[in-house]
Amino acid sequence: SAVISQKPSRDICQRGTSLTIQCQVDSQVTMMFWYRQQPGQSLTLIATANQGSEATYESGFVIDKFPISRPNLTFSTLTVSNMSPEDSSIYLCSGDLLPDTQYFGPGTRLTVL
Amino acid sequence: QKEVEQNSGPLSVPEGAIASLNCTYSDRVSQSFFWYRQYSGKSPELIMSIYSNGDKEDGRFTAQLNKASQYVSLLIRDSQPSDSATYLCAVNTNAGKSTFGDGTTLTVKP
């Protein structure tokens, strides 16, 4: 079965720095998404990563803070820019390994000091 | 009103019992419905999908969908301690994008 991987699995970062998270799928997918999950809470969609065009952001998320790339159908990156402690969260990518069905990567646990 | 609402929980059942998890959604044009299981510290894992009214069974799991009532449920028969997790209901409305409920935490006591 296809696998979704993320790097890094966790990181501790200083305030004001940026972190880029990579998401790799071992088969081509049409849709890729980025989510945030804060402790004890559900998933919040950040954006849809569109192949070959700018990402589509949800309300409350902007490109300057969360730039996203998707150069092909198997890979995407999410950058968390100018981080603050409020950005501490788990960041998850997902892809539609089956039509209209999302599967998740293992997540990246980010702590900002 | 939230787009996807789940019974608040936490839910506790004894081992061997049936656990019933409920979810309602607000968008009538929703077409696809999913249940994910999330263990503490792990990412969500898809366990059931359902697209048409009625029941869908997979092993000990049964998903039930009633589009007229905008209601989807998950039944876990013969609950095991390993079923203890948070269960997330997800609804797809358009462009393959899922909206998630807040989750229900299930504890199965030996």
Number of E-type strands of chain A: 11
- Biggest protein-protein contact in the assembly: A-B, 18 and 22 residues
- What is the residue-mean pLDDT of chain B, rounded to a whole number? 93
Could you name the ranges of chain A where pLDDT drops below 50 across 5 or more consecutive residues? none
What can you tell me about this protein's structure?
The complex is a heterodimer of chains A (113) and B (110). Chain A has strands at residues 4-7, 10-13, 19-25, 32-37, 43-49, 56-57, 68-72, 75-80, 89-98, 101-104, 108-112. Chain A is mostly beta strands and 113 residues long. In chain A, strands 2, 4, 5, 6, 9, 10 and 11 form a 7-stranded mixed sheet that branches. Chain A has a 4-stranded antiparallel sheet with strand order 1-3-8-7, with no helix packed on it. In chain A, strand 4 (32-37) and strand 5 form a beta hairpin. The mean pLDDT of chain A is 94. By secondary structure, chain B is an all-beta fold. Helix content of chain B is 0%, strand content 55%. Chain B is built from no helices and 11 strands. Chain B has strands at 4-6, 11-14, 19-25, 32-38, 45-50, 54-58, 61-66, 71-76, 85-92, 98-100, 104-109. In chain B, the strands form 2 sheets. In chain B, strands 2, 4, 5, 9, 10 and 11 form a 6-stranded mixed sheet that branches. In chain B, strands 1-3-8-7-6 form a 5-stranded antiparallel sheet, with no helix packed on it. In chain B, strand 6 and strand 7 (61-66) form a beta hairpin. Chain B is globular and about 40 Å long. The model of chain B has no long low-confidence stretch (mean pLDDT 93).
